[in-house]
Amino acid sequence: MNREPKAKSQEPQTSGRSDTGRSERAKRAEGLPFASERLTFLEHLTVERGLSRHTVEAYGRDLEYFAEHCHERGLALPPQIDEDCVVAFGPYLASKRGLQPVSIARALAAARTFLKFLAGEGVLPADPSALVSRPKLWRRLPDVLSQEDAATLCEAPEAEAQAGGRLSWRDRAILELFYASGLRVSELCDLKLADLDFQMGIVRVTGKGSKTRVVPVGRDALETLRRYVALLRPKFAGPKDEDRLFLSRTGRPLDRIAVWALVKRHGRVAGIPGDYSPHTLRHSFATHLLEGGANLRAVQEMLGHANISTTELYTHVDAKRLLAVHAQFHPRG
User: Fold this and answer.
1) Is 207 a domain residue?
2) DSSP 8-state code for residue 131
3) What SS3 state is found at 10?
4) Which of 160, 175, 179, 298 would give a disulfide with 165, using CB separation of 3.0 to 4.6 Å?
5) How far is CA 93 from the centre of its chain?
6) Is residue 142 part of a domain?
7) 119-164: per-residue pLDDT in tens?
8) Residue 73 belongs to what domain range?
9) pLDDT value at residue 193
10) pLDDT tens-digit profile of 110-128?
């Protein structure tokens, strides 16, 4: 009788806060240099290059940093940007923004792409970043769950199901699909009901650059998804007949923040140590496939990586495991 209020507390209400944050950020961005040029560039990324909304938003945030950096140097017009300004952007991000090397490299790449675009449009006489060397980074090995911990995380919502939690079927379907198909969190949130093919056992995914790929879904994930779609989702779907696969109890599509919170909450309940996220399940999906002998090209296709060098990172994770086995069992390990 009194379980419904408790269930409401399980799902974070984030939309109002994030909308406020976005509006405040937009006002601040408009007051920074190159506002119209930045807007034109972001429209170019969306319309001509077909990048996803999440990718364009990331470019926008990085270019706000660049505009702030230029503002502090007293630069108000694009032609005033010079090579020294580009070189100083990395140290600015580290000292003033406290960003990590990977985030700094991403922001520098965004600024380079922006400046190259302005030069191509004739706004700049030349690209001031063309001769600036790119920072070299050690590639960080992704965090990966053991096969046992991945299974425990996927099964964690069952404890809530036994206590009468209404959302447990949906939550388990999300966790199982992450681990079974290696989706990015934005890809999972954007899935439509029609993207699932239960007969073929596949899901059609629209990834980066609006590229579509087909990914297999394992038996356990399919069974959990069938249960969610048949028994729980119809209770959430409202009169608008929302076509997204995963819905909140109010019938609205789940956003990335809610899904991140969901993964972390069930991980804590399951007692899994460490810092993990939806991407941890994607990393685990790829690593466990390669450990089982899967072909690297097949894993690349399932992950939606444009470059196989990105997928090769997971072979280093497997090599790390092999080194540990060698050290433990070899007489001179």
Assistant:
1) yes
2) T
3) coil
4) 160
5) 22
6) no
7) 999 999 999 999 888 776 555 567 889 999 999 999 999 877 766 6
8) 21-120
9) 95
10) 999 999 999 999 999 999 9
In-domain check, residue 137: no
Extract the tokens encoding 293. Answer: 């002998």
Q: What DSSP state is assigned to residue 78? A: G
Same domain, 175 and 218: yes
H-helix or E-strand spanning residue 153: helix 147-155
- The DSSP bridge partners found for residue 213 are 205
Calculate mean pLDDT across residues 241-261: 90
pLDDT band for position 5 (cuts 50, 70, 90): very low
**Cβ neighbours for 288, distance < 8 A, ≥ 6 positions apart:** 147, 150
Using the 3D structure, point to which of 120, 139, 158 is the last residue of a domain.
120
DSSP-derived 3-state class of residue 321: helix
214 in the same domain as 312: yes
CATH of the domain at 71: 1.10.150.130
Whether residue 92 is found in the same domain as residue 45: yes
Residues 113 and 151 grouped into a single domain: no
d(CA 143, CA 2): 39
- Active-site amino acid positions: 184, 208, 279, 282, 305, 314
In a domain, 321, yes or no: yes
